[in-house]
Specification:
- The structure is a single chain.
- By secondary structure, the protein is of the alpha+beta class.
- The protein has 2 domains: about 350 residues, Zn peptidases (Aminopeptidase); about 110 residues, Alpha-Beta Plaits (2-Layer Sandwich).
- About 30% of the residues lie in helices and about 20% in strands.
- The chain has 12 helices and 18 strands.
- Strand 1 and strand 2 form a beta hairpin.
- Helix 1 crosses helix 3, helix 1 crosses helix 10 and helix 8 packs across helix 10.
- The longest helix has 19 residues.
- The structure holds zinc ion.
- Zinc ion binds next to helix 3.
Length: about 475
């Protein structure tokens, strides 16, 4: 074999990140080997037993680190508290990641591989002919020298979101061992079934008792996301008239053919996931089932703008009605359910929540990149329910696929950013938001004062569950 070019290892963002890296990697490699794949159409929480197994493991690790109240509840939620090291008043801050992995690719039997000091070019994985090619995966460009973690080619890696879990356990273990580092009271939560949209469902915001929280569930280093899609699902049910095909002349009305015509009549050069990017929304038919008697089209509809979302829904309904109108014997039912809201409207009134994250990312030597998520997070629903929860980067990429990968240098930057974030929240200008009254008025939002007051009360009380405010109504 030809002599390979020497690639000097990439440096870490800071000495803190370098300090955290190996502990972080060990935890991450341990977590990804547990199959925590979520199952659709769950009958209970969590949807799969592996999530409880990982929950038990991280509870043990959190207790070993000194977070003695760490616990796993019957629904698969892990919670724990790391008490403040400051005597000054500071708010309670939440850190959230999810235990489950996506059902979109195989999730069992993950065999992680660490490719030390990536030399650039294509990474060939041993199984499934899977290749990581910078030509089609531009995020790999610029990661020369990084330690790249992948699976073996036939499964997910599970960086989504086990980097988040590992970054939080690593950061809080480091802070617990270093009481000289300033920190507010930190509340940790690991949720089940985020990938099937249920992570926030049984989340007890009141018991969590935090002023605000951060999910560690993003991607490229430096990303800070305080905006998600607003999401709706529309189910179209078409009833036709079924007749034996031998005697069907002039009598059969095929619901299946009508459904196919509706799908074909939807715009595809625009308003489709494959032809939109950035801030554009879409209508996405994702399942079509049918017989001549009855057919169902399942769609998801997305936009960052609520009015635009309504227009997309109206277009979908009108398109279906126009097709059905050509056959008076057919009927159409159009059922819309709301899935999650754009978190921005709930985070905007409390700008210091994202400002603290920006300050933390900068303290780690990284320029923050504000982006909008073309999807949702646990934070979408949590923010709506009164716990403002933007999303921070993890260093993972190509989520929900067998090509999933993560950079150890970037993962370590995520863990270090958590430690920085804790310090930021003890700075007077941020801690002031936790004051029981008055201090939060400069935001001009009465909701901000109410949140700060409630969290201040629980910070004084220390542990969880002490707030007497109604978190669900705080910001609404
Ligand atoms: Zn995720």
């Amino acid at each position: 074999m030809a002599q390979e070019r020497y690639q000097p290892p990439a440096s870490f963002t800071t000495p803190l990140a370098a300090t955290l890296a190996e502990d972080l990697l060990e935890r991450f490699l341990r977590y990804v080997r547990i199959d925590t794949q979520a199952r659709r159409n769950r009958s209970g929480s969590p949807s799969s037993p592996g999530q409880l197994e990982l929950g038990h493991l991280v509870v043990e690790e959190l207790r070993a680190a000194g977070l003695l109240d760490a616990a796993l509840d019957a629904n698969g939620y892990v919670t724990a508290t790391l008490a403040t090291t400051t005597t000054a008043q500071s708010p309670v801050i939440g850190l959230i990641a999810h235990l489950d992995t996506s059902p979109d690719a195989p999730g069992a039997g993950v065999e992680p591989i660490v490719h030390r000091a990536y030399r650039g070019g294509i990474i060939e994985l041993p199984l499934g002919g899977t290749r990581l090619d910078p030509a089609t995966m531009p995020e790999l460009t610029g990661k020369e020298g990084h330690d790249i973690v992948t699976a073996s080619g036939d499964t997910l890696l599970g960086a989504d979101d086990k980097v988040g879990v590992a970054a939080i356990t690593t950061a809080v273990a480091h802070m617990a061992a270093h009481p000289e580092l300033p920190r507010p009271t930190l509340r940790v939560a690991f949720t089940p079934d985020e990938e099937i949209g249920e992570g926030a469902t049984l989340f007890d915001i009141e018991a969590f008792g935090a002023l605000c929280a951060y999910t560690i569930d993003g991607s490229e280093v430096g990303e800070l996301q305080d905006e998600t899609f607003t999401a709706a699902q529309a189910i179209l049910t078409i009833e036709g008239v079924d007749v034996h095909p031998g005697q069907a002349m002039g009598r059969l009305v095929s619901a299946l053919r009508l459904a196919a015509r509706i799908v074909a009549a939807l715009p595809s050069d625009r308003l489709a996931p494959e032809t939109t990017s950035g801030r554009e929304g879409f209508i996405h038919p994702f399942e079509l089932t049918g017989t001549p008697a009855r057919a169902t089209i399942s769609t998801i509809v997305r936009d960052f703008d609520d009015d635009e979302l309504e227009r997309h829904l109206a277009l979908l309904q009108r398109t279906a009605q126009d097709v059905i109108a050509t056959e008076p014997r057919a009927t159409l039912e159009f059922h819309v359910s709301r899935q999650y809201p754009n978190m921005r409207s709930f985070i905007e009134p409390v700008p210091y929540v994202t400002e603290a994250a920006e300050a933390a990312i900068r303290a780690e030597g990284i320029e923050p990149v504000r982006t909008a998520i073309r999807g949702g997070t646990d934070g979408s629903k949590l923010s709506e329910r009164g716990l403002p929860t933007p999303n921070l980067f993890t260093g993972g990429h190509e989520y929900h696929s067998v090509r999933e990968w993560a950079s150890l240098q970037d993962m370590a930057a995520a863990a270090a950013t958590i430690v920085r974030l804790a310090e930021v929240w003890t700075r007077p200008e941020f801690a002031a938001w936790a004051a029981p009254s008055g201090a939060a008025d400069q935001s001009g939002a009465t909701g901000a004062s109410a949140v700060a007051g409630a969290a201040g009360a629980s910070a004084v009380a220390g542990a969880a569950g002490a707030t007497d405010a109604k978190p669900g109504t705080r910001l609404v």
